[in-house]
Structure formats: structure tokens, C-alpha cells
């Protein structure tokens, strides 16, 4: 297994990024200013994008694993890598997600705690209704983790 920081041709990973954020115009808002990491294990399995939000806060904007590899621990391995990578640069990492039990469990299992909510984020910022596990995404639930 190898995790690489990707500095060029980030759009090459768009198919995978769209699994976690299905509107390309939203990905465009953070992709170039963010740092992209790709996890390979006999081929590409997962990616994530992290942005600087302040001097001591970074945000995990996107993390995605190809569906056939869900449940193999690749997302958690990628998170452990970026926690170690950023621990000396930032005090806190944030992540925003929909109010979907499966997603919230994944982040909480990896040390995040619910922080706050942005009402109507998905309905106000996306050009179409979004669903995950049969649940329409409305509010953005933010979680935080001390690094």
C-alpha cells in the first residue's frame, strides 16, 4: 500500500471525487487550493482533499473510495495518514457531511466528534436534490477532530 500526495493533474481523479461530492462545480471550489492524497494498493483505491481554513484549522473536503473497495479499511487508512501528516501543522481537522448514519459512524469511528450544523447547506448550494443511502441531504453536519 502506498499513499501519494498529488500536486498536478488533480482533475484526473474526478471520477472518484464525484463519488463523495457529486457536483463538479463544488469540487472546483476546493480542489486546486487543497492538497490531494491518493491511496494505492494494487491500483487506486481512495482519495481525499484537505484545505487550510485558518492558521490552526484544516478541513477534509472530500474522501472517497471506489465502491467495490468499501469495507476494506482504505478510507480509515487514508485518514490515519492525513492525521499524522497534518498533526504538526494544525490543531483541528473539520469535516462536513450529510446527516446520514453510515457516514457519521465512519467519521466517529475515526475520532471525529459532532461539532455544529449548517442548515439547508445541500439544498442551498447544489443544483439538484442529493441523496445518500436513501436519505435526502439537507443540512451539513460538521465534525471535528483534535490533531
Entry summary:
With 147 residues, the chain is α+β, with helices and mostly antiparallel strands. 27% of the residues lie in helices and 36% in strands. The strands form 2 sheets. It has a 7-stranded mixed β-sheet, sandwiched between helices. It has a two-stranded antiparallel sheet with strand order 7-8.
SSE topology:
Elements: E1 2-6, H1 14-20, H2 24-28, E2 35-40, E3 44-52, E4 57-65, H3 74-86, E5 92-98, H4 101-109, E6 113-118, H5 121-125, E7 131-132, E8 135-136, E9 140-146
Task: Write a structural description.
This protein has 147 residues and is an alpha+beta fold. It has a single domain, classed as Aminopeptidase (3-Layer(aba) Sandwich), CATH 3.40.630.30. The chain is built from five helices and nine strands, in the order βααβββαβαβαβββ. The strands form two sheets. It has a seven-stranded mixed β-sheet, with helices on both faces. The longest helix has 13 residues. It is globular. The two termini are 23 Å apart. The mean pLDDT is 96.
Amino acid at each position: 500500500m502506498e499513499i501519494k500526495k498529488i500536486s498536478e493533474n488533480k482533475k484526473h481523479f474526478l471520477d472518484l471525487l464525484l463519488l463523495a461530492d457529486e457536483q463538479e462545480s463544488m469540487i472546483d471550489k476546493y480542489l486546486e487550493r487543497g492538497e490531494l492524497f491518493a491511496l494505492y494498493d494494487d491500483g487506486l483505491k481512495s482519495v481525499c482533499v484537505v484545505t487550510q481554513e485558518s492558521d490552526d484549522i484544516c478541513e477534509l473536503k472530500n474522501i472517497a473510495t471506489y465502491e467495490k473497495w468499501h469495507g476494506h479499511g482504505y478510507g480509515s487508512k487514508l485518514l490515519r495518514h492525513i492525521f499524522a501528516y497534518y498533526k504538526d501543522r494544525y490543531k483541528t481537522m473539520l469535516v462536513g457531511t450529510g446527516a446520514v448514519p453510515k457516514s457519521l459512524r465512519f467519521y466517529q469511528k475515526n475520532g471525529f466528534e459532532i461539532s455544529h450544523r449548517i442548515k439547508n447547506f445541500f439544498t442551498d448550494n447544489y443544483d439538484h436534490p442529493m441523496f445518500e443511502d436513501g436519505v435526502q441531504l439537507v443540512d451539513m453536519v460538521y465534525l471535528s477532530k483534535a490533531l
